[in-house]
Write a structure and sequence with these properties.
The structure is a homodimer of 336-residue chains.
Chain A (H helix, E strand, L loop, with lengths): L5 H8 L3 H8 L9 H13 L6 H8 L4 E6 L5 H14 L8 E6 L6 H11 L4 E5 L6 H8 L4 E4 L10 E4 L1 H14 L4 E6 L5 H17 L2 E2 L4 E2 L5 H13 L6 E4 L2 H13 L9 E3 L5 H5 L6 E3 L2 H16 L9 E3 L2 E3 L5
Parallel strand pairs in A: 1-2, 1-3, 3-4, 4-5, 5-12, 6-7, 6-8, 6-9, 9-10
Antiparallel strand pairs in A: 11-13
The structure holds a DNA duplex (30 and 30 nucleotides).
DNA sequence: AATGCCTTGTCAATCGATTGCAATATCAAT
DNA sequence: ATTGATATTGCAATCGATTGACAAGGCATT
């Protein structure tokens, strides 16, 4: 009743295991006579044969597996990038490479432990959507054993192939928009500074403000997490400032939602009393009764480029696809 | 510069590979002399030895891997159950079992393809947080080869060990609460009927309404997805009814949020003009300026019991831990 | 008929770790 | 000194698939 191994198939058919292996493979199938090939394939199907990928991995030295590190599984943007990545992993609709997905939650040594697991399982590559400076060392070490690709977040010191969004320009877009709308004093509610994303958004935003002569509230405001709860708390800090801004750039939509709810609790209207912009163009952004002005993340591009990097790196191409940075897009809605 | 294999370690130390294997193992370490054991472990560490789990899997017939099917990676409840599940997979803080996480998005044949992949990779068990009637067959077939555990969603026909929330009672709790608050005509915005969860919530809710003499709007209202967007659309259907209810039970928080935003756009206040209750106690539920009355999902219990089932099943215990259903908890906030 | 090429298939080694069994060493008890 | 028990280590098979080397047969060319 158990499923047969390749050896058993071979016995039943009176051929060698190697013939079975080749007949069933993609690349070596031409080495076996068409009739034999068909015979083998038919028999494999109705015997319910299922190749043992652990054995194949061992022999090939390739596990057809990719380690995916993600900072936060609840974050829509990460998930959507992973989704397009996984979709691009399939060849002709057949999933050949299985992702091992693991979450770091930005905990200091989570990444290095997970990377150890990945390497023990002999992943063919690692894609990190979770890089923080704390993991720099772990990723660097890993990159000596296996291709490492960065997505969404980069690490300047490492020079690893990456698929990114132009976060600086994204921040700049928001700033320009707010300036156009006539705001004179603005404010950022920044995400936690451990990832490059938020730093770049802040830089891009501040640069434009400075260039165009718009002031930011003096004290920089950070959230501990990029969540609505944290955004809500952060609004208190905004109101602690000597001067009250007329617009807030929240570093992502989750923070923006927290900010908006907090404003509502204070009886303030968005955007009349305070304009709010977010980042990512989350699903919720469109659903809110005051639809959110935000920056659409180039999800598909980032995911697909990460997959492209993966394929080019494991194929060992010399003119490998390089790092790329994709442009986000400002989505103007009612909130700012 | 490459990392050494067990064989190379053995040569350097002048002992047999089997000794290395035993010294480094958990369960057979007592078979090797304490000094040898220490010597081996030290050498392993500073040679940077890292066991090859693909080889170990092959030989052991156990991959120390578990297939996790999840319907939706964006759903906080699923993710949180998976998180506690993964945490409970570690023994003494060491991750011994690696989860292979795959998403079905409730697409008809996604589950069976993913299960094929899992089985080819020789997972030790499969945990499905994605079961729909469409996958019944695939899960049943899988359960003949490997332990299959259901979580969150069950399949009555299959009698597989499961870790569940008492969704029926959850629905009932909401109904009782609405009755207590004096509502006479209520309405459900149901989630898609492919999963048991929503059906049970609906049944529990309706039963109590009937028992306590409260009317529901006649036409049942379903959403195509359990998302805010779908919830928003569904509100139109509610207003299409001949009579307007005074309270809405949305089958989860995401739907509830859509409903609330749609109400706001119509200029209606929650809960004064329309009470709204959700399900799951999502993070957002607490953050909203009108905090959401909802049902807290027994996340920890479900995740931990699923892990318990896994451990007991692969240990082959005869008095295996059985299916369990955990009680959710009504969280009364402002919205209803 | 001899030669060479091509097609098809077999043989056997191999990937790296695990484990049942056997072998040796050590020690105590008689 | 002999026996037996116990502790420690080595030997070699094994898990299941893949692949380089090679052999057999067929066919065409000269």
């Amino acid at each position: 009743m158990r499923r047969p191994s390749m050896k058993e198939l071979a016995q039943r058919l009176g051929v060698d295991r190697s013939t079975i292996s080749r007949a069933l493979s993609q690349d070596k199938a031409h080495l076996v006579a068409p009739e034999t090939r068909e015979k083998v394939r038919r028999m494999a199907i109705d015997a319910g044969y299922r190749p043992d990928l652990t054995a194949a991995s061992l022999r090939r030295g390739r596990s057809q597996t990719i380690g995916v590190l993600v900072a936060d599984l609840e974050n829509e943007t990460f998930i959507n990038v992973i989704r397009t990545l996984i979709a691009s992993l399939n060849v002709d609709g057949v999933p050949v490479t299985t992702p091992l997905i693991a979450e770091t939650r930005d905990k200091p040594n989570a990444a290095s432990r997970l990377i150890e697991t990945f390497l023990s399982r002999r992943v063919d590559a690692i894609i990190s959507l979770a890089s923080t400076e704390a993991d720099e060392r772990a990723l660097e070490d890993a990159s000596r054993e296996v291709p490492v690709i960065l997505a969404i977040r980069t690490l300047a010191a490492l020079n690893l192939p990456s698929a990114l969004c132009d976060d600086r320009e994204g921040g700049a877009m928001v700033a320009r928009h707010l300036v156009e709308r006539g705001h004179k004093l603005v404010c950022q509610v920044q995400g936690p500074p451990l990832a490059t994303t938020f730093k770049l958004r802040a830089q891009g935003f501040s640069k434009i403000c400075a260039d165009l002569g718009v002031r930011e509230v003096t004290k920089p405001i950070y959230t501990a997490e990029a969540t609505p709860t944290a955004g809500k708390k952060a609004l208190d800090l905004v109101f602690d400032c000597e001067e009250r801004p007329t617009a807030i750039f929240a570093h992502n939509d989750a923070i923006a939602i927290g900010v908006i709810e907090a404003l509502r609790e204070r009886g303030l209207r968005v955007p009349e009393d305070m304009a709010v912009a977010g980042f990512n163009d989350t699903r919720l952004a469109q659903v809110l009764s005051t639809p959110l002005t935000t920056v659409a993340y180039p999800i598909r591009e980032v995911g697909e480029h990460a997959a492209l990097l993966f394929h080019s790196l494991i194929a060992g191409e010399k003119d490998e696809a390089g790092s790329r940075t994709f442009m986000p897009e400002l989505i103007v809605r009612r909130s700012a």
